[in-house]
Amino acid sequence: MKIKRDKIRNDYTKLKSKVFFQMFLITVAAAVAVYLLRHILRGHIGDRIVGYLVKAFQFKNSDAQEIYQLVIRNNIEMILFVVILIFLLVILFRFSVFWFTKYFDEISAGMDKLTEESNAKITLSPELDFMENKINQIKNNLEKQKKAALNAEQRKNDLVVYLAHDIKTPLTSVIGYLSLLDEAPDMPLKQKAKYVGVTLEKAYRLEQLINEFFEITRFNLQTIVLNKEKINLLFMLQQMADEFYPMLTPQEKQVSVNVPDDLTLCGDADKLARVFNNILKNAIAYSYENSIINISAKQQDKNTIITFTNQGNPIPKEKLETIFEKFYRLDSARSTNTGGAGLGLAIAQEIVTAHNGTISVESNSENTTFTVKLPS
Questions:
Q1: How many CA atoms does the CB half-sphere of 224 hold within 13 Å?
Q2: pLDDT in the model for residue 235
Q3: Which positions ≥6 away from 232 have C-beta within 8 Å?
Q4: Is CATH 3.30.565.10 the classification given to domain 229-375?
């Protein structure tokens, strides 16, 4: 399909047809000129040449006619050929320069319009339609990239504002409770313990938000370098599920890991752990209370398929297309408990892509499933 598409885009048929037509007209014109010139040289022009020789060089009329016969009339075909050849070369060169500089000017003008803030389509001559299609395709791609960059920058700026606001809240609480503890050294132990507990909780939240600031910077600057090794997938996923136990308990959620004992995977263990961590964290944050999050894996041909399925509110269809974008957050209300930097799934996709794999998501009224497909 690609070869066929390129052939269509580079179709020079119209351009070649026009050039051929122009050359044909010039050739016809030259043929007419030859015909006329032959008759002219044989008619009154011939008589004038003979008269000129008689008058200028004092030749006899018979001698002048003989010279005209030998030099011009007998060689008229050669003379005409040389004259017409010179004429054709001059005309062809002149028109060729004109035609192609005209086309270059059109293409140059079209290229200039690539940077213009306009939705108007760039148009060229009909015989340059293949170039017109290419330029308009480039223009559309540039506009899409610019729009995506502006949207990403806007989301990033909004996120920084949100995080700055969120940082201020726990910081104010930490300062407030520490001030109370400082002002009342004889405070009852039970009350002091309560204030210390609240302060510690807010300090942890503050640490989390600060880490998210660093995460934004790291994500923009880092280049993913893989250190591949053999991974026991069951052990990795089971250990991860155990680490999330404190997050699961308050809402009585559970994680069920269904992975064959002997299933192994070749990849960067630390980075893939981050992928699975981000997906599981997302599943926990958006699943119903008292629900079970299922993690399963299987071998399929030369690939390993890992799925994370949770029961929760379905992800709207329009959001499924942007869920892996940088700084995208499903939680538009920015819940303090679930809101993150919006980098988790974007980073997961970068790591999976670096492993030559794919990551996708499906969501309906019953459950949401993230699927990671990696080469074994």
A1: 20
A2: 92
A3: 264
A4: yes
| Length of the chain counted residue by residue | 376
DSSP-assigned beta bridge partners for residue 293: 255
Task: Give me the residue spans of the domains in the chain.
Answer: 2-115, 151-221, 229-375
The whole-angstrom distance between residue 275's C-alpha and the CA centroid of its chain comes to 24
Burial 131-161 (b: 16+ CB within 10 A, else e): bbbbbbeebeeeeeeeeeeeeeeebbeebee
C-alpha–C-alpha distance, residues 81 and 31, integer Å: 10
Tens digits of residue pLDDT in 49-93: 667 667 777 777 777 767 766 766 666 666 666 777 777 677 666
pTM above 0.90, yes or no: no
Q: Is the pLDDT of residue 336 over 70?
A: no
CA separation (Å) from 104 to 107, 135, 280? 5, 13, 56
User: For 269-285, what is each residue's pLDDT tens digit?
Assistant: 988 988 898 899 889 88
Going from the C-alpha of 274 to that of each of 237, 240, 352, the distances in angstroms are: 11, 10, 10
d(CA 298, CA 304): 6
Give the dihedral sign, CA 8/9/10/16: positive
Using DSSP's 3-state secondary structure scheme, residue 71 falls into: helix
User: In which region does residue 314 sit, left (phi positive, over 0), alpha (psi from -120 to 50) or beta (all else)?
Assistant: beta
First to last CA, the chain: 30
Whole-angstrom Cα distance, residue 188 to residue 196?
Answer: 12
Class of domain 151-221: mainly alpha
Phi, psi angles (nearest 5°) of residue 358: -135, 155
Q: Which residue has the tokens 């591949």?
A: 228
Identify whether the C-beta of residue 262 lies closer than 8 Å to the C-beta of residue 222.
no
Backbone CA torsion sign across 66, 70, 74, 75: negative
Q: Are 295 and 315 contacting, i.e. CB atoms less than 8 angstroms apart? A: no
Q: 296 - beta bridge partners?
A: 258, 307
The H-or-E segment that residue 361 falls in is strand 358-363
Nearest to 304 by CA among 356, 235, 254: 356
CB atoms within 10 A of CB 85: 11
